[in-house]
Amino acid sequence: MRLVVRKRLLASTLLLGVAQPAWAQTDPAATTAAQDSAEQNGEGQEIVVTGSRLGGQQLEQASPIAVVSAREIALSGQVNVENIIKDLPQLVPSVTSASNNPGGGVATTDLRGLGATRTLVLVNGRRYVSYDSSQIVDLNTIPAGLIERVDIVTGGRSAVYGSDAIAGVVNFVTKKDFSGAQANASYRINGAGDGGTFNSNLLLGGNFADGRGNATFYVDYTKRDGILQADRSYARQALVDDGSGGLIAGGSGSIPGTRFAIGGVNRKFAADGSYSAYNSATDAYNYAPYNYLQVPQKRLLISAQTHYEVSPALNIYAEGQFINNRVKNQLAPTPFTGSVALDVDSSFLSAGSQALLRGLDTDGDGYVASTIYRRLSEVGNRVSSNDNTAYRTVIGANGDIGRGWAYDAYYSYARTRSTETQTGNVSRSRVLQALRTTYDAGGNLVCANTSNGCVPLNIFGEGNIGADAASFISIPVQNGSTITEQVASASITNNHLFDLGAGPAGIVFGTEYRKEKGSYSPDFSLSSGDVVGFNAGEGLSGGYDVKEAYTEIAVPLLADKPFVKRLEVNGAYRYSYYSTAAKSVNTYSGGVVWGIVQDLSLRGQYARAVRAPTVSNLFSGSAQDFPTATDLCTTATAVSNANLRASCLSSGVPAALLGTAYDGGSTQIQSITGGNPNLREETSDTYTAGIVLQPRVLRNFSLTVDYYKIKIANYIASAGTSNLIRACYGDAGNGYTPYDTGYCAALPRDANSYAITDAVNTLSNTGGVSTRGVDFEARYRTQLGFGLFGEQTSRLDLRFSGTRLIAFDYNPLAAIADLTIDCAGKFGVTCGNPYAKWRLSGRTTWASGPVTVSLLYRYLSPVDDDSGEYSVNHIKAYNYFDLTTAFEVKPGFTWSVGVNNLFDKQPPILGDNQEQANTYPSTYDPYGRAFFVSTTLKF
To answer: What is the tens place of the pLDDT at every residue in 831-843?
Structure first.
């Protein structure tokens, strides 16, 4: 789920020639982008876009469609596809290269901010390879050099394309008949001199059999350097709220010197084994500098595709991809937390510490139970190395079968194998074994249980764990996961079924079978639960299949009548039968396009869409997580408010500890996440209504405005630990009266520290999401009466697009409607990444002869914290500018240079309500000004 922030402490561009400008566009401008692509390949045929299996132009569709051309990718200077399309106002940032924890080095896309799992990603109208059991496509695996354009259809499209299209569809359309050779190289580096990203690729293609066949081969290599949070001044120190409206240095309550809690009293050890009171304001551990701000990556991608027309009735096609993607994530050393038995006579302790523990040894057995919070720095940073290898093959045939009928049938198989190797992990059983010490006959301190070569563990002070002890408790970890998808699909289409006098009607019938299967294979240490930060979980395997039948029809009713230049209706229906609890599912849609006059059209669409739970949603095991949340019983309100005081006392917190930092002052709460095999499918209802204006009196100008409303029921997400706390204890809005004390059982407390530990935050069907807003775009193109380099004229292209988010209502707990929050214009612990009410994007491109200059403008409106209870409750508006200049040195050779984040805009700085690195690095540029250069050679 994208809404709940999760801060875990555990656990290519093909830069084409740009002799003429283009941009990211919607509808009228999108038509131009598609036409530009056709012109570039010497084609003049109609461009058929995504949104309907019957095809047609963008302006003929009832649903809003955006298009990004290959030239837009060239002008952006970005190496990865997600950095191009994320600037479209309809998209909200999802997982990016700045996502270190969690992240995994992947890049995903998120339409409307409804979550990447609700955006269906296709390649040439067909499902692509997922990167894991969440069934989300990693945009890094799509061959950028083959992209002809990217179609983005907003609004539910399940009736047309099947499950997952709740928010819409992103379809990457690749070149079909490339002939020749094209080599590209690009390099990008930040103004700080770090984060270098190199990409090179080669595209080869040729026609055969007198043009009836074509084969294309593409290879791409990318290397991206990592950036640590220590490399940016705003990110190298973890910041927290100071309680008085400011920010101070903070961090984790698990410290290198060991914080230990007995009877709710927190103390810490010094290097000489002595103890003192723990102060969360000064003693918290700064974990920030060790984390990646940009994860390093190495990627090799190979793609091939071919087609051969045997006859008009039989065209055989095939394609295949191989992707190897290697990334690293790095976190600060392991924090060990839990109840342990401390030896009261340990020689590691000072005399004062021994006396303290003896006084607490009530049963006289020589040991005292204590909850410890130890950062095991001597073991080293936690490093996760992910090696993902994906394969995909497609084979199919299409052709005409007479009387206007055509068919298309294909089979696809995709498989991703991920192997994760972790270092810096620690064995819980060995820590407990090494802490329980005694003395041998010679008076030497030894492990009470000497098996496995046990070495006593000196946690009593920073830096006291020796190399032998660190080696004893260290444990290498490896796990593997596999996700496979098989699709068999067949359809027949007739675009000239009948004609009512306004144009031919079209219809399509089809059937599809899809099988998804995922597996997870942890090593023995992980499956036993012995690795700190991971719960026990056996290897698992699960999957489902779905059988579907669908139809779609489009019928022009009237044309060239008074006030009816064109009137067309469309409809689609899909029946799906899942092998899971979803069983029978029906999705459908209907729309209308009414061209009042040639200059003005109205359009509208309704769609019922579904999303079945993914393999990960259903079958993933439990894991430990550290989301941002505040234990209300540690606040001053727990003393002053009678309702909250009573709730805290009933949960087991002693009266003397109310309003104190008995949790070590932590801004994160240890929680348990995981799947749920009883999840139901999500359903959504989407309404869109829009206007398309192309006035003849102002040639080459167009304006589109579209209203949308999406309501999702049974929204699959974890409620969020902070929302579980609100449900149990209430909030300021209701005077801290519990909404439902039944949720208190999901918030157990540690017996020694009384801190909330292992909050149960697993997936469920929540109360749902409802969002509405307006998309718009204006575009104008004109010839200018001057030029450079011997040209008498030049061309100016202007595009301005945006989204106005009116509402984004989210209910995290279906049983408590009062917890519903409107995230429009908000960010924070519940809403997650900022949902700016205004997201704007504009591009100005001027071209004359061999030179193209393009300036991109991006705007995010101000946002406020979703609770208003933090030091930083407001983020101001952000304006970004990117500048690109391209030179066609000679035919077939293009050189481009550019700057992203031209004015070196720094991200907003936050405390307790941040996502990562004291900011929201997926929304606001965390790196500063960046420069890029690229070359393209065609021959």
So the answer is: 989 999 999 999 9
